[in-house]
Amino acid sequence: MPLCFAATKALFGILLSTHPDGAGAATPAEWAIVVGFCLWLFLYFTLPRPVRSYILAHELTHALWAWMSGAVVHGIKVAEDSGSVVLSKSNFLVMLAPYFFPLYTVIVIAAYCILSIFLPVADYYVFWFGLIGLTWGFHFTFTISTLLQHQTDIRDCGYVFSYTFIFFLNVLGILVWIVVVSDVTLEETVGIMSDETRIIAAYCSEAFAHIGKIVGQ
User: Fold this and answer.
1) Alpha-carbon distances, residue 54 vs 38, 76, 82, 115 (angstroms)
2) What is the pLDDT of residue 217?
3) Could you say which of 7, 176, 209, 216 is the most buried, measured as most Cβ atoms within 10 Å of its Cβ?
4) pLDDT for 144-191, tens place per residue?
5) How far is it, in rounded angstroms, from Cα 142 to Cα 55?
6) Domain residue spans of the chain
7) CA-to-CA distance for 166 and 195, rounded, in angstroms?
8) DSSP assignment, residue 196?
9) d(C-alpha 20, C-alpha 25), whole Å
């Protein structure tokens, strides 16, 4: 929880420092991500929701992270409103991966990298950043709606741990996008995150020491 607070504080600090003069100073890449994200919100709330596409991404993400952790994927099932994956073993990363790993966004980035070898896709970078905003919006909205329902993944990993872990990694993901599309460097982001973490750690230490004195009395 303290790390979530530190990451959130770092995120807002970076956002405010990146464009102190307002949104007018935003780069085309930043605008493309925002427009793509807003376009998805419009589609999400006005058109039939592609639930099956999300379920497919959800189960494929389980399978991908299980494969990366050395597990064997025995089968994947995707239906209209449910899905499942059969694995030889699992862990908390495999169970929680769909909630912090935007599979379709990663596919867009991979497609860009592969096509850039053969085609001048960099000339259309605004379009690609728009796709990133669109697909990350897909991940964001369906993650929120899914977490509002009963999920065995969350229950098995523990509600407090699961929610804080998912929140923390999604905030880190937003920080990564800021580094990619703005003048903020990775070193600056890590430095701000480290400073905020130290501040929160100091507050927690003082709070625990105060509680210890009260209990001791």
Assistant:
1) 18, 14, 10, 25
2) 62
3) 7
4) 999 988 888 898 889 999 999 999 999 988 888 788 777 778 888 888
5) 10
6) 27-186
7) 22
8) H
9) 9
